[in-house]
Design a protein that fits this description.
By secondary structure, the protein is an alpha+beta fold. It contains 3 helices and 8 strands, in the order E-H-E-E-E-H-E-H-E-E-E. It has an 8-stranded mixed beta sheet with strand order 2-3-4-1-5-8-7-6. A hairpin with a 4-residue loop joins strand 2 and strand 3. The longest helix has 10 residues. It is globular, with a radius of gyration of 15 Å.
């Protein structure tokens, strides 16, 4: 079902500082954008064959929900590349995994879906169909 790890999503309290740190490590920016419908600003950095996604919540409610109290950063999800998000959504639902949305979500050039961590052994997986939008 899963082809490879596409990215690791890290929620941060200060996107500019996190970007500066990754750049000081020699990582190269792939893309950055604001995603207002998800209340976040994101930046993807190349890391070998995969990526690190930095995620800064843009509202207090989103910050509290995604980052928690007193945290500077935390790993939130593992993005895995798949061939067909709608098909994989059906397949994982058949295994008893719940998803955060009933339909795939376009973000940038990709089609996405996220598992509910409590139904996927405590880990949130983001299903990513690259260049599908």
């Amino acid at each position: 079902m899963f082809k490879r790890i596409d990215h690791i999503g890290v929620v941060v309290d200060d996107l500019a500082a996190a970007r500066s740190f990754l750049e000081s490590l020699g990582m190269r920016l792939e893309r950055a954008q604001e995603v207002p419908e998800r209340n976040v600003k994101i930046a993807f950095y190349f890391c070998g064959d995969g990526r690190i996604e930095l995620i800064e919540p843009t509202t207090e409610e989103a910050r509290r929900r995604r980052l928690g109290a007193g945290n500077q950063a935390r790993i939130e999800h593992i993005g895995v590349e798949v061939d067909d998000v709608p098909d994989i959504m059906k397949a994982v639902q058949g295994l008893g995994v719940e998803l955060t949305t009933s339909e795939p979500v376009p973000v940038g050039p990709n089609l996405n879906a996220w598992t509910e961590p409590h139904t996927s052994n405590g880990v949130q997986f983001q299903l990513v169909q690259r260049d599908a939008v």
